TrEMBL record:
It comes from the Eukaryota. Signal peptide: none annotated. This is Craniofacial development protein 2-like. One of its GO terms (molecular function) is catalytic activity. Residues 3-123 form the Endonuclease/exonuclease/phosphatase domain. Pfam families: Exo_endo_phos. SUPFAM superfamilies: DNase I-like. It comes from Sitophilus oryzae. InterPro entries: Endo/exonu/phosph_ase_sf (IPR036691), Endo/exonuclease/phosphatase (IPR005135). Transmembrane segments: none annotated.
C-alpha cells in the first residue's frame, strides 16, 4: 500500500500585499492581502507542496482575510479555506464583514466538495476540564469569537 501525505500550510497575518501565486521552494504559494497602496496588515496564504500540485484546480483570493484553494484528489474536490479572523479588539463592522464573507464562501461550496478550514480564528476558548481538545491548559479568558 502506498502512503500518501498532503503537505498544506496556512499562514495568517502575513502582511503580504496584493493577490497572487508563486513557486516558493518546494511549495506553490497562494496569497490574498491588502491592496498594494495601503499600509500592510492582515493577509493570509496557503502553501501546498509541489508534490501534490498535480491535484491543484484553482484558487480564489476572497479578501485580505480569506483565500481558498481547491484540489481534486482521487476524484474528490477539496476546498481549503485559509483564514485570518479579526481580533476581538477589531470594530464590529470589520468582524461582521469578515463573518459575512466567510459565510458566503461556505454557502458556495457544493455538497459534493470536502472542506478544510485552516488558519487563525482568533478565538480564546478558556479552560474547560471536560474539553478533549484544550482541557485545563487553555487561557482563563473567553472572547466573543469563541461564542460564535
Amino acid at each position: 500500500m502506498a502512503r500518501f501525505s498532503l503537505d498544506i500550510v496556512v499562514l495568517s497575518e502575513t502582511k503580504k500585499k496584493g493577490r497572487g501565486s508563486e513557486h516558493l521552494d518546494n511549495f506553490l504559494h497562494f496569497w490574498s492581502g491588502i491592496d498594494k497602496a495601503k499600509r500592510a496588515q492582515a493577509g493570509v496564504s496557503v502553501l501546498i507542496a509541489k508534490i501534490i500540485s498535480k491535484f491543484y484546480k484553482n484558487y480564489n483570493a476572497v479578501n485580505e482575510r480569506i483565500v481558498t484553494v481547491t484540489l481534486t484528489i482521487f476524484g474528490l474536490e477539496t476546498v481549503i479555506i485559509g483564514t485570518y479572523a479579526p481580533t476581538d479588539d477589531s470594530n464590529q463592522a470589520e468582524k461582521d464583514s469578515y463573518y459575512a464573507a466567510l459565510s458566503k464562501v461556505l454557502t458556495e461550496i457544493k455538497p459534493s466538495q470536502e472542506v478544510l478550514i485552516m488558519g487563525d480564528l482568533n478565538a480564546r476558548i478558556g479552560k474547560k476540564e471536560d474539553s478533549k481538545v484544550v482541557g485545563k491548559h487553555g487561557e482563563d479568558v473567553l472572547n466573543d469569537s469563541e461564542r460564535g
